[in-house]
Every structure is written in structure tokens, then in C-alpha cells.
Amino acid sequence: MDLGSDFDEFVRDSSPGLLRAAYLLTGDRGHAEDVVQTALLQVARKWRRIRGEPAPYARRAVVNLAKNYWRDRFRRPPESSATAEFGHGPPDADVLLRHVLLPAVMDLPVRQRAVLVLRFFEDLSVEQTAAALDCSIGTVKSQTHDALSKLREALADHASLKENDHAN
Amino acid sequence: MPTDDELTTLLRRGFAQATADLDPNPDLVNIIHRRHVGAHRRRVAVAVAVPAAALAAGAGFALASPGTPNHTAVDVAPPTGSAPRTTPHTSPPIKIASYRVDRQVVRRHHNTPLNCPANATASQFGKSANPRPGAWFWTHGQCFFVAVGGADTKPADATPIHIKGYPGLYGTLKDEVRTIYAPGIGGRGWWVLKMAASTPPETAVHTIVPAN
Questions:
Q1: Least C-beta-crowded within 10 Å: which of A43, A78, B37, B103?
Q2: Measured between alpha carbons, how far is A157 from B1 in angstroms, rounded to an integer?
Q3: A98 and chain B: CB distance < 8 Å anywhere?
Q4: ipTM strictly over 0.85?
Q5: Does residue A85 fall inside a structural domain?
Q6: Same structural domain for residues B196 and B103?
Q7: Is B179 left (phi over 0), alpha (psi -120 to 50) or beta?
Q8: Nearest chain B residue to A156, by CA
């Protein structure tokens, strides 16, 4: 029952990274916090067995819980019909990131998004990503390729829209 | 067309920007400990109650099947009038939801986040127009301002709103202003969270935490 100070240390050290990854996977801060708490509870339950190297277990729990969140999201009615429209547009320099690239990431299938987050946010290798997602190295590579292709298409669409605007 | 390297550099920058103001709850360690202890107690209670209930119902087969290794099925006599009884299960008393304002969240988010647009405003809730305590949130690529206040009563036309993990909230939506009423500790008054109608209520409730 007593988890010991090394568990506390692990929670303190790992929770910022886990929360950020969960946020990128779910796209919602509240759900990201829920996901991290539940993942850390799962870690606590298995602490004796995984205390040598708990980070991969925690990461995998976050990814799986985030996947469940997306699966459940399509099964229940939305909690709010409010749409996020507020304030003025951001400066031009960040338009690409905020209004094109990140929304395009959120539109990706959850597994492709998880691959991008693990590889380019958590800086995991292909092998580590495969272990975290419980899939083969080849799958990670193909999912990365597909995801980057879709993002490239989104950027190209944005660029052509902009050109049309200028032409008009 | 950007190369893979250019695209991944953009992605890294975007991920870093999108998560720049995210910090976990400072009390997370204690929350996990509390929830872990609670879950452990529930597991122990179930481990005791389920076999006892099965015995009480005379269902020995629930515990032993012929296929179970190292286990011999035994005929269990049907219970008589003096069947063993489990301790009466009493549900924990239902607590009425109450909240307190998470001052750390409000303090941490009181200044406009750096990654908000420079000209972000919060209409009538903006600090420049009408200084009042509140918090800025940067989420879904948008900036929101939530003003925090209190009231003795909630309006009669406030309707229940349902947000996961936040029972007992009421809300109104008038003149493009969304107001959420959260019961105060011990039923004394209400916390009032005001925001623009376009602000997701899930964002606003980050300023309060359950008090019980």
C-alpha cells in the first residue's frame, strides 16, 4: 500500500510531460488531467513490479486512455455545444501553427496522432514508439509517413486558399 | 511543399507552443495517494463481500468449478434459517457537492498568457475594461477569460449544467454572457464564474475544485 518516496518523485518528475502528451492526444485540458490521474493510478497499482522503469508503463497507459477517450467521445453526446470562438486572430507568424497545423494534427486518426506526439514531442525513437503503442516498427514508420503526408496536404490546401485570396 | 524535416520542425514548435502553459495540479501527488488508497479499500471490500454474498446465497458453484485447477468442487448444502450473514452493507452518506476556488490556478492564470494574441480581449470581463479577479486560459488555440466572484443566491432561471466531474452546477446564458453557479462550501452561497458565451464551460470550471 505504501508507495514510498520514489513514487512521489516519479509523479512530480513525469506528470508535466505526461499531461502535455495527454493534452496533445485528447485536445482537452480537463480530459488530459483525467487521463494523467488515471494513468498514474494504474502506475501506483503496479508500482512494485515496475518501479525500476515506470516511465514506459505510464506513457503507454496515457496513450491507451487517450485512445479510449476518443472512442468514447463518439458514443456519447457532446458535453457542451459551445464552440471555441473568441477574441481576435493571432499574429500572422503563428497562423500556420495554430490554425492549420495543430487542427490538422487533431483531425488525424488517434493512432497517427499518437505516433507524431511520441516521436516529435516526446522525442522517442521508432523502437520506443512501437513499444509504447504495442505495434511493430514497420507500423510506426508507415503511420508516421501517412500522418506527415496528411499534414503536408493540409498545408498545401492552406497555401492554395491563401493564393486564391491574394488573386481575388 | 515542406520536406519531412521542415514539417517535423514545425510540428515540434507547434507542440511546444500548444503545451507551454500546461502545468499539472501541484497537489497531484496527494490526489494520487488519496485515490490509490480509496481504490485499494474498495478492492478489499469487494474481495470480502462477493465471496461472502455467494456463500450466503448458497452458491458454492460460484467459487468452485470442476475445471478449476487444484480445486475440488464440493456440494454445498442449501442455506438453512441460520445462514451466515454478511455485515450489512451501508452506502456512504451522499455528500452535497460543494466547491472552493483553486487560487493557485487563478493566480497562475491571472496574467494574459504569453501565447495569447497581443490584442486578445475578454469583452466585459477584460481586466483593462473592468479589473476583477479571474483567470486566462489558453486552450484549443484560443484565449478565454473567466471572471470569478460570489453570490448569496443563484437566479431562479438557472438550469443544471452537466460537466464531467463537476456535479451540482447551474448556469445561465444571457446577452452573450455565460454564468456558472457552483455551490460554496457547506451550502453557503455560490461561486459565480462569468465568461463570454463562446467560452467552453469545461474551461471555466478549472478555476474551482470540489471541496468534499
A1: A78
A2: 11
A3: yes
A4: no
A5: no
A6: yes
A7: beta
A8: B1
